[in-house]
Amino acid sequence: MDRVRIKGAILIVILLLLSGLLAFGVKALAGVFLNSAHGNTTYGVYRTSISSFGYSRGNCTHCHEQHASIDGTEPAPASGTPSNYTLFYDNYINQTDGFCYQCHTDTGSYQSGGLVNRSYSYRAGGWTADTLNDILEAFSFTSPGSSHWLDDIRTFITGKPWGYTQDSNPCTACHNPHAAQGDPPNSPDGTKSPTTRGYPVSRPSQHSRVSNLWGLWGDEPGERMSDYTTGYQAPYRYNSTTAYEPDGSSTQDGSNLTDFVTFCTDCHNTVDVISSTPLGRNLRPIDWVNEKHGSFDADGALSGDPPYGSIMGRTLSCTDCHEPHGSPNQALIRAEVNGATLAGTITTIEATDFTPPFADYNKELGYLCQRCHMDDYDFNTNCQQNRWYYVHHSGSGDPPYSAMRCWNCHDSGSGPPGCNANVTSINCNICHYHGSVDTILGTNRKTF
To answer: 142 with 149: CB under 8 angstroms?
Structure first.
């Protein structure tokens, strides 16, 4: 009997120790999840179709069905078999159909009360007139708009040594669903402010299949745009010259902005080849250290609109110009940049002829350029907007091209040189794009 009692006592101690360890492990994981947008007990996941079963808000069961099914009212997984992640819907089907969209949509959302997810131009730029209000809509932009193409993302991350598999949802390339925070949290109809901030992204190269080991990016020192020694200048918020992105404060040095350059160049760099299905070609390589809009200095002089002015030697954030999910413009270009909306929609940025004299005269990319760079009208109000004689030929302090050799670039023209000269315009994208170098002057002059 004593032996039995001793064995029983030992077994009880072991079980108590094991239960303590398990409790500790669950607690650590829960801490990360409870701080996320999905795990928050006030506004976290809460699937309407199973709310009557007694699961609390933020409970894992609102996404994961531990026994493959709990007979909710939503449709069964389209594959007809349980998900590898025990999800209530197929993890990923295509660009506009998958698990995440079952809640992240403004119509038919399974999330109680629905979900609204605004554009970056709305949240950081303060452009509240933007009507884009959900993730499905953002990824539904096609020609003339654009979206991050999820099939291409899944193909890319599966081929990297980062721990993703063919079963991975491409959304998880940038977001850890068990850690991602709302930005701003629980305020889908508001913009970011210094007191309402969240951090939604995690670096793909740091991915770990143990979700609580895969940390957020931007939430800690050393992960901000202010860490660049070249310096960062925040753009204005919409319709303001005193409030700056991303939170409407007076902070301009990027100490309140995620280092999106490091985040984006995990994939968009000079080494990785990313095939684009919508474009039918590989994406252009991005060498951020050696680009003028990156860490490389401008040549000679800079004629910038406020708050950039003539001060050189600053870097930009990718989100200063690009939306992360989708945009009505090509190349994910934002519809609102540096305090105002673009003067037009950018439907094409692909030049059809790169041999002077050029045959493509679409100036749409200039709508983006003029948000930060001085066009002819800025130099002289008698000139037209979105024309660029001054910065290329005269008056800017950095005019590299002779105004008397028009035929080198312009297909036709007449009259004396000047901002209103009768010459054919040139597509900005012929000379200005990521990685572009101009050799017309006999030097490898960086032009972006």
So the answer is: no
